[in-house]
Amino acid sequence: MADFLRRRQYYGIANFRIIGSNTRYSFIGIGAFKWIVTKTFYRHLNQNIKLSATPTLDECTEVRKAMTHSEWLHRIAFWLVVTIGIPITLVQGLYRQVVPLLLLNVILNLYPVLLQQYNKRRLDKVILGVKKHQLAALR
Fold first, then answer.
1. What is the pLDDT of residue 44?
2. Cβ neighbour number for residue 27 with a 10 Å cutoff
3. SS3 content of the chain, % helix, strand, coil (to 5)
4. Which of 79, 101, 103 lies closest to 92 in space, CA to CA?
């Protein structure tokens, strides 16, 4: 599945956003989640998503592709748990396990998707700045 996604350029809908404004990101606590990811052991999980101090356009593009790939893997995992894991838990009669499963799914899959989208918006601004800088250098 990961190889299939990796071969597809931006997966057709790389710019799809669940949340549109920075105010809503703040409201749901994406800043706190970002702090947890960057200041704890979670920062070691995906080393492909890092920029150098002075990123090139190619580096920014590759990081954006890696972010999109990671985002889509988390989306798939989120929907698998929602469509398969929770119904199976309900069928087995484990009703008390549904809420913790759903909470873990939101924390471990939905919030990373939202964080990737938030960071892609920021990265798009960096890419525009790099492009402007390269155009100015050509003139």
1. 80
2. 10
3. 80, 0, 20
4. 101
105, 63 contact by CB (below 8 A): no
Q: Is the dihedral of CA 76, 52, 133, 135 positive or negative?
A: negative
The half-sphere exposure of 70 on its side-chain side, counting CA atoms within 13 A, is: 21
Low-confidence stretches of the chain (pLDDT < 70) are 1-17
Instruction: Choose among 102, 126, 99, 116: nearest CA to 33.
Output: 116
- Asked if 109 and 78 count as a contact pair (C-beta separation under 8 A), the reply is yes
User: pTM for the full model?
Assistant: 0.80
Please list, in sequence order, all residues whose beta carbon lies within 8 angstroms of the beta carbon of residue 114, skipping any fewer than 6 positions away. 18, 19, 25, 28, 30, 33
Distance (Å, whole) CA 78 – CA 107: 10
Residue pair 98/90 in contact (Cβ under 8 Å)? The answer is yes
Contacts of 120 (CB under 8 A, 6+ apart): 64, 67, 68, 71
